[in-house]
Write a structure and sequence with these properties.
Elements: H1 5-18, H2 26-43, H3 48-57, H4 59-75, H5 80-96, H6 122-129, H7 136-146, H8 150-153, E1 161-162, E2 170-174, E3 185-189, H9 191-206, H10 228-242, E4 247-248, E5 251-252, H11 258-266, H12 273-279, H13 287-291, H14 297-305, H15 308-311, H16 320-334, H17 339-347, H18 352-363, E6 369-373, H19 376-384, E7 388-392, E8 398-402
Antiparallel strand pairs: 1-2, 2-3, 4-5, 6-8, 7-8
Helix pairs in contact: 2-5, 3-4, 4-5, 7-9, 7-11, 16-17, 17-18
């Protein structure tokens, strides 16, 4: 469509506004073009430039035509937000092409939030993912545990994924051009979301895909990456497979964007408002956001870990196995040199609480060096050198300490 001057003018407007091709969103521009084409068909015109000339020839007729187009969307049953969006997109197209009409005469409805949606429960998410195609499992987990928008996820590439900084969670760098407000931010995903994402990447490698920094983070087998319609269509199929198809004013109560509601409701009362909003990408160009809200990655990770019990979907977070696993992940970060010893202590006790006194003794600074040896000969040699035998460990190893 860019062969038409009016569409090229619109494209140049967005390029100039972005300031760089890096921040130019082809997808958003495409949405504007789709609206222009729909309006062109509504008017019975053959091309966008001809439509513009037709409107320019009779401004009162143009104003009535656009009002009729908005009313046509209402009669189709589209939400007031959709009606306003289409009118706004047409307004931008006509203005950048210097169509001088009085937009105050076009009545655009207020946005009325009529849909009664809600956050899905963990049980419902587990059920939904049992009906999901393989690529939708990491997609669902990323959306649910990061609070990210679908529109942001579909823009991400492997270069935006950080698996190296932390052994448990993964950090995702959402670039400015993939955000709604044009401000980049960092978010995170849970260990189980990371595990399913890594399995998905491994499957892609096994299927012959050469993964590189520019490869899409999540990919369906039918596209080079994923698209919003593909995600939404797959989600609807999941809903229909589980009979979770309740609707409110024509919209599924558990539509795809309720995964953001899941994240928001699960972290309530755990994270501060600033951290929560930063993780969800609720940053604006306001003074404090742009100039002062710079949360260090380590701090973000530490705060995010507080939410793992509530954001973990598949595992029973109340079980002792999960508690031990979560405790050990923290130990590997805080006391990497003592992680193996603490793992052995946990294995000998039924609960973390029972193991706590022994672990506390181990991690309390006492200027004593610890060492594990695997045979009695080495143990006796160390004892002769002044080491103190503490206990015999599972598997025939020996724990020794010295000042």
């Amino acid at each position: 469509m860019t062969e038409y001057p009016s569409i090229q003018t619109l494209r140049n407007y967005f390029l100039d506004k972005a300031g760089s091709i890096e921040f130019f969103s082809e997808r958003s521009f495409g949405d504007y073009v789709a609206t222009v084409m729909e309006f062109m068909d509504y008017m019975g015109q053959q091309d966008p430039d001809g439509t513009l000339e037709y409107l320019q020839a009779d401004i009162p007729r143009a104003e009535k035509a656009i009002q009729g187009y908005v009313r046509w969307h209402r009669e189709k049953g589209n939400a007031t937000s959709t009606q306003r969006l289409r009118a706004t997109q047409l307004k931008r197209w006509t203005r950048v092409n210097c169509l001088s009409m009085n937009w105050d005469t076009v009545i655009i409805p207020r946005v009325r939030l009529l849909v009664s949606d809600r956050a899905p429960s963990k049980t419902e998410l587990r059920l939904l993912m049992s009906y999901a195609p393989t690529w939708m499992i990491p997609t669902t987990l990323i959306l649910a545990t990061s609070g990210m928008r679908v529109g942001s996820l579909i823009e991400l590439m492997l270069k935006h994924l950080n698996l190296d900084s932390f052994p448990d969670i993964a950090i995702i760098d959402v670039p400015p051009w993939a955000t709604k407000g044009g401000i980049g931010y960092f978010t995170a995903i849970t260990p189980e979301a990371r595990e399913h994402l890594e399995k998905s990447l491994q499957r892609r490698r096994e299927n012959g895909e050469k993964l590189g920094p520019e490869s899409p983070l999540v990919k369906s087998p039918f596209n080079e990456g994923i698209t919003y319609p593909a995600v939404r269509h797959a989600w609807v199929r999941m809903l229909k497979g589980t009979d979770l198809t309740e609707k409110s004013h024509g919209t599924y109560v558990l539509h795809i964007n309720t995964l953001r509601k899941f994240f928001r409701s699960q972290v309530e009362g755990i994270l501060t408002k600033s951290i929560r909003e930063a993780l969800m990408g609720h940053l604006t160009a306001e003074y404090l956001d742009r100039n002062y809200l710079r949360i260090p990655e380590d701090t973000l990770a530490m705060e995010y870990r507080k939410t793992l019990p509530t954001l973990t979907i598949f595992e029973d977070v109340l079980s002792e196995d999960y508690q031990k696993k979560a405790f050990l992940e923290t130990v590997r970060i805080m006391f990497p040199d003592k992680a193996d010893l603490i793992a052995e202590i946990l294995a000998r006790h039924r609960t973390v609480k029972e193991a706590s006194p022994e672990i506390q003794e181990l991690i309390t600074p006492n200027d004593r060096e610890a060492k594990i040896v695997s045979n009695e000969e080495d143990m006796l040699k160390l004892v002769s050198q002044g080491w103190d035998l503490q206990r015999e460990l599972n598997g025939g190893d020996f724990l020794l300490k010295r000042d």
